[in-house]
Structure formats: structure tokens, C-alpha cells
């Protein structure tokens, strides 16, 4: 089980790091073995930052992350390498994971060097081949090519195949299917579902609510680094209680009807720490008042396994 | 007719031979039309977009003609394309959002971009401000660094910039795919607004999100493995497609309320063909549930009903 305990991340930005940007604030949730949790939120809400903290690609400003009871936020050296044997990530912009001057296959080599130095070539290629097949790629199409010779979707699946080379327990999947077409998406989703059935836990970061519903048991809705609502997927979807979640549910593009006029305000990210509710500026609730400005609403359980952070429930 | 493409064929030259990413494509985009472009990942959508504006090695022009507003575009000549690029035809590339230089302020970047196109920043400043205002961006964005903008803000900034000179055609490659649904909606509606205000005459919107196209596109064109499969009005493509690939693609779309534990959706069995050595005839043949002998020949992209084009032998 992976557990995030009151995790925060503050970036220092601006000249001389004079400004603070609260990318993630006091986030706690856990992911059980063989569970898929989706992490949903707008661009800049801190989803990738959470994923990167789990993967130790950025440090935590406060809080801790535990894997099976071991605090990994301080792991180093050998312990960290051991951790990566079990926890891997695939990230949203596939191009950034490749070095354009080397063949794309190079991303596999690092796994071999780190974890399978004893395998001979034949056994290794066999392993790579079956990993590629698992993500719907024909090795013939994609091996021995430079990154720019592959399409966005091909590169993305390449990276998933890379994570599958290890027998991992936990996968951070950051927007891994937004670049794929509908039919390939379903194949990759079904693949994730299969891996989950074999015990893999997945943090499924996405903007696509229908994909999140399709695959996840629980959903976490993030807004400006804070959890707005979380719980069993059905409850969050069928009975959204936070005004932000409600607005999201109303904006889902559907094939059976056209968008209604939901008023969407697009404000910039303000980097100041508001003491109150982070959603205040955009909140359409008529009842919002001084209480919302003064204090940050706590995340409270409204029904079993359904938590909401809003003063005006 | 804003855009007329005839028999356009573009390959990638590689050591192992030509990758036949765009084969003999013929289609039109009308004035004021927003055309969605969808298809399997790797089928040539980005290639098509790039061919119209920056056709450079390893891309190789093989044949075909492109006319924009009845004027022939010299797409095979990078230099002669200069006067058209950005002014007449503009591209928002896939991942443009992340490609912004993080160490340069937005305003500075804008001035440089315009300068490189021979446009005076000060002369166009008023119009720029007006448009920023229209898309709800404060003037202060010009003093910000890309990292300070949210994804939706960046995308709107990129849109304002790429349409500032009122191009005839805008090609937007996956501009909503990293945004959350509410921001997606706002950006998508902005595309329509820009068309309605005639900042842009016509658009090609490349995306995998068919449900977004359903909201904003007038027509949708579907590609498969470098060939055109179908083009028709949005309603027809979504509700009564005729090409077997389109049918399978549409039926594999998940909607909210579908759970893999209850309804396991199916992708399309089989794999995309290798474009280095594509199969003869219809490239969908191997995966097509209704293929027959005739499919060994390339099916023409024919108008089966008014404004409804299909490339499938079962249709004629
Ligand atoms: N290295 C960094 N330095 C400073 N600020 C950063 C850094 N990385 C991210 N941020 C900021 O932290 C916030 C959260 O970013 P993050 O990438 O986690 O968002 P996200 O939810 O993944 O968004 P998207 O959907 O666009 O990927 C944003 O405001 C972003 O600009
Ligand atoms: N520079 C290149 N050299 C060789 N082949 C290439 C090159 N760029 C792209 N290709 C190939 O051309 C085909 C079409 O690629 P393209 O990027 O146009 O696909 P796409 O439809 O935009 O896919 P996606 O939806 O994944 O972005 C792919 O099979 C790809 O592997
Ligand atoms: S032309 Fe033949 S193979 Fe191609 S889609 Fe039609 S029936 Fe199927
Ligand atoms: Mg992200
Ligand atoms: Mg593309």
C-alpha cells in the first residue's frame, strides 16, 4: 500500500526565488494493492507534482510518503534503487523522456543496465518484444528508430512498455492516454485493468472523466493543489458535492448531447497563499461567505468513503 | 473554398526506405468550415498538418497540389512558403504548450516571433491587447514566464498569437488534449469564437477527442494508415458513419457511466500496418471485418452522398 501523508510542495519562483508557489497543499490519500485511483484536476492543479513526488523526482516540502509502511521520501542509494524496482512512472509529454540524438530504444537500456545485467541478449530482446506487444506495438515498427521517427502515441506506448519490463507494484500513469486514439486508448486501459487484476496499483492521472470512470475504484479531485473531493468513484460521479466537481461533471463532452452553457471562468493561478478556500474566486455558490475567505475548509467524510472540502455543504 | 488538396503524397525518407505517411489525399475545406481530423495514432495527421506549412527533410514531397483561397501553395519550397507561413496559414503544433521557452517572458517571446515575421510589435499591440482581453487573459501575462501560466492560459496565449495576423487557415494539433474538461470546453469554444469573428477563415482541428469534435466541428475527416477513410458532416460521422474503420473507432469510445468491470469495451483487433511497406490496396484490409477480393486495389475517396466521402469498396 502506498500512503501519502499530509504532503505539500512549495516551489520557489521568480528572480532569486522570491515568490512561493504552493503547487500541492496537505494532500493525504492512500492506494491499496491492486487498486486504481484516478487523480483529476485542471492543468496546473498539481497532479504531475504529486506523481513526481511519489517517484522522488521532486522533493517534498513537508509530509511523507510510505510504501508498505516504509517512509520512502527519505530513501537514498540502494534503498532508492530497490524502490524503483517496484515503483515506476510514465509521463504526459512523451517527447521529453527521449534524447533526440539517440535511438528511442535507449530508454530500455537503462532498465537493463540497472536491473537485468545478467540477462543475455536473446532473453532480453524476448522480454522487450513481449512488453511491446502488450502495449499494442509491433517491435518491427518501432525498434531501432529515432524518437522523431515515431508518432506521439507510439512514443507514449514505448514508455509504458518500458515500465512493464520490471515487475512493478505501483505505476504512476500521468496522462498517458491523452495522445492515443479511442481504440488504442481502450487497449491500453484494458491492459492497465489486467495488470491491476494481477495486483498492480495505479495512480491514474487524467483529464478525461470517462476514462477515469472506466478504470478506477476511487477518484481524487484536485484543485490548486488541494483535494476538493475524493472517494468511491460512483459516489463522486453520481453525487458530486463540491461545486468544482459539479462544474467538471457538467462540462464533460458527450456524444449524445451538445454542451450546455456552464459558465466557466478562466482565471490565472494566483501564487499567493490564500488562507481560505482555494476555490473561492471561482465558486458560483450563492451561499459563499466570509467563512470561506477566512479558513480553509477541511476535507470531511460526508458518507462512508466520500470526502468533501467545502464549508457550504 | 479555403483549402483544396489534390493527390497530396508525402513520405519520410529514412535509411530503411520511405515511410509512406500520406498517400494520395484529395479533399477540401470550405470557407468558415471547422474540420476535425481524427484517426489512429501514427496515421499521418501531424504529417498532413506539417506538409501544408513546413515540409522539410526528412519529409519528402512526392506529388500533389495544394491551393489556399484559389492560390497555389508552393509547399515543396520552404523559402517560397515564407510569405504564407503564419500570415495566411498558421500551425499550432502538438505540444506547443510545453515548447515555450521557460526563461523568456511571454511578451518578449511574442515580440521576437512577430519580429522574425517582419511584423512590428508596436503596430499590432492594440489588437493583441484586444484579443487577450477577449480570451480573458490579463495584459499582465506579457510580463509572465510560461511556467506561471496554467495550461489553459498557455493554450489561449498560443491561440491568440497564432491567429494574430488573421490567417486564412489555422491548423491546431491536439491543443486540448492536456487540459481538464472545463478548460477544454473553454478553449474549444474559443476556436469557434475565433472563426465566428473571422480571425480565421477555416480550421483543421486535430484531436483524438471525438466528443470534443462533436461539440465544435462542422465536419470530421478520418484517416487510417496514411490514407483518407471518410469525411462527412459531424453528425453523419458520429451517428451514421459508413467506413468500417470509422464505425469501429466510434464504437470504441467510452462514455461516463461505462465501467470495465461491467462492460468491457473492445479496441479494434489487429495492428496498424507498417508504413515502410504498407499493404497494397486498402490499408485497413487486414483488420476489416467485411473485406473482399476487390480490396486488393486502393479504394477511391468517393462522394457517396453530398459532402460525404468514403474510401471503401463496399460502398460503391
Ligand atoms: N519546477 C517548477 N518550478 C516552479 N513551479 C513549478 C515547477 N513545476 C511545476 N510548477 C508549478 O506547479 C503547479 C502545478 O504543476 P503540475 O505540473 O503539477 O500541474 P498538473 O496538474 O500536472 O498540470 P497539467 O495538467 O498541465 O499537466 C503549476 O502552477 C506549475 O506551474
Ligand atoms: N521523421 C520521421 N521519420 C520517419 N517516420 C516518421 C517521421 N515522423 C513520423 N513518422 C511516421 O509517420 C507516421 C505518421 O506520423 P504522424 O506523426 O503524422 O502521426 P499522427 O497521426 O500525428 O499520430 P499521433 O496521433 O500519435 O500524433 C507514423 O507511422 C510515424 O512513425
Ligand atoms: S475497402 Fe475493403 S478492406 Fe477497405 S474498408 Fe472497405 S471493405 Fe474493408
Ligand atoms: Mg501534469
Ligand atoms: Mg500527431
In short:
The complex is a heterodimer of chains A (313) and B (316). Chain A is an alpha/beta fold and 313 residues long.
| Major sheet of chain A | 8 strands, mixed
Q: Name the poorly predicted regions of chain B.
A: none
Radius of gyration of chain A: 20 Å
Tell me the CATH topology of the domain at 2-32 and 41-72 and 205-308 in chain A. Rossmann fold
Percentage of residues in DSSP E strands of chain A:
15-25%
CATH class of chain B: Alpha Beta
Overall spatial form of chain B: globular
Number of strands of chain A: 12
Task: Walk me through this protein's architecture.
The complex is a heterodimer of chains A (313) and B (316). With 313 residues, chain A is of the alpha/beta class. Chain A contains eleven helices and twelve strands. Chain A has a domain at 2-32 and 41-72 and 205-308: 3-Layer(aba) Sandwich (Rossmann fold), CATH 3.40.50.300. In chain A, strands 6-7-8-3-9-10-12-11 form an eight-stranded mixed β-sheet, sandwiched between helices. The two termini of chain A are 31 Å apart. In chain A, 45% of the residues are buried. Chain B has helices at 45-51, 96-99, 106-116, 121-134, 151-162, 181-196, 210-216, 234-239, 244-251, and strands spanning 3-14, 17-29, 34-39, 59-68, 71-72, 89-92, 169-173, 202-206, 219-224, 227-233, 302-305, 308-310. The radius of gyration of chain B is 20 Å and the shape is globular. At the A-B interface, helix 6, helix 7, helix 8 and helix 10 of A face helix 5, helix 6, helix 7 and helix 9 of B. One magnesium ion is lined by residues 45-46, 94, 173 of chain B. One magnesium ion binds at residues 47-48, 92, 174 of chain A.
